[in-house]
């Protein structure tokens, strides 16, 4: 995970990060700028890193007996086709980072995705992987192919919120919803389409850069095509599954702007949100298990909710820091978590388990995985 | 993956590895001995490594605000219960490695699982993880709880083989079956129970040491109890799921010896099996994707099968070396693989996909994963 960005910045609707909001210390800004360029570099050299990965496979293939190489003609052709898909991914990534140029208003970096990394610049393998994850996240949040996953997790949240905040009783434009861990912003878009005021918070610059592109620069449906599964070399039944194109966005947020308001804020949830009794609703989807200390997250959610406001949560308990070296982590089971939520003063309105959800799952892979998620609706008492 | 063991050795029925078979070079033997002790050390310091993992969690917990610690009393008690389960796992592991003493006939190491690692000895984290995998493998192969997984993958293989080698037409004791990647030996036991002569081949010393214990030293049903899920801190609904005891073996191979013959051979499949036209049947279950070059595996299978003999395969294509640094790997998709198998001269008798199989899956976890495996029956032509 990259360094936290501690200042509060809007990337919507202005399409630029506002560096004047908050009061960042100069060294922090320098650190953030470095981090920003590191991530831009990971995007920029996506093609180089991907082709290097293919080359390693081709080189190994050259060491095999001639009789084996003869049997692998079709596989070799497949590798060449994968390279073409990587080229097309790189073209889309070029557009994504081109727009990121204006995220830092006085940025002076030069974006040329086809270049080789300069001497001394090392792209970390985990950052290359995060670029791949970003492509899968586009599949999940903004493609027709990702509809099943979105229906599994966003639909119950949206239905819950629209039922609770009945439009005949509430002026939805004044109902303030926060979505921490907003990723590529589909959930905030959908909530804003219902008429709510909805703010997304996101920590990862990979997500922020890509969401900025989808939310502000994709003007027509299915404007771009990516190949999200080209890096998955295992458990493929067919070559065409690995080469599957995915177009996005299935809906253009600029062409069909929501009737409500949406806003995306960069930064660490724990540092950005301090105003007590501010939000009418907080919706967390695959988010609360991203904490070193989950109680801290739930405590902040409780503090910033208005009395009578609700917290809707869906997701598993895949505590992200559980096996990260040099990171602290507590991992209470769900039954302990429920007790903690109660002891923090929440009224539990709904408490369901075994809600089937998948996350960036390649539908054609021979390996299928899903979460039996928990679904919680909790209310902050009126006094 | 540990170093290959290139010599052919029996660990059944003699319960000792025969170091005189084959023609190992002295340096190879020294290398193998070092590797053996490294793996024994990973088992031996299982308790130490596990308690260190718990301690890290407890230390982080101590840094939390007092109010949070108050909410975590139940979680803290849970950590203490986990420690008791780890102690019990360590007792079983002590028995498992005690018996491993006689695998190398002139071994002089001292096995005391409760000790701290001596100065300078570092247990690699991946070896600690392999001890955990071994516990899960015991669940899969030798517990009542693992029956579902076994029925998914071993049952179709056994039924195929008993149908092909009809006992009214064949003297099963003379039908020679090889199971490469035999793991903890359940499949070879089941095939030997049908009356066949069955040999398992295994490369991993973790598996060989544990299978030796189950096959030769477990004299009554459910003689031992382990806690295979204690190291899974994520996606637990309930504390009792993480603390679930699993007894083994559900059947004792020493108390109910098979009517046929079974034998386990240590070593690298590619190096050990050279005799052409020797086996009547080869059964591979979650094995063929463990190759750097899958063609090499299939070619050996073809060579060592008798004309008219069959190869039964079930499993996914999770090419194990796909993302291992400094390892070569080719990853043909299933459609290419079928063509390769045909071009090697096999007659394909059955070719199914989407056979649902799971592998060491914690049935209570909120994260569920399975493979839509391929199921293949191939025959070597008579001429």
Automatic annotation (TrEMBL), chains A, B:
Keyword hit for Methyltransferase: yes
Originating organism: Anopheles sinensis
Pfam family of the protein (one): CARME
Keyword field: Methyltransferase, S-adenosyl-L-methionine, Transferase
PANTHER family reported in the protein's UniProt record: CARNOSINE N-METHYLTRANSFERASE
Similarity field: Belongs to the carnosine N-methyltransferase family.
One annotated GO biological process: carnosine metabolic process
GO cellular component: cytosol; nucleus
MF term (GO), any: carnosine N-methyltransferase activity
Protein name (database record): carnosine N-methyltransferase
Enzyme Commission number(s) from the entry: 2.1.1.22
Domain of life: Eukaryota
InterPro entries, per database record: CARME (IPR012901), SAM-dependent_MTases_sf (IPR029063)
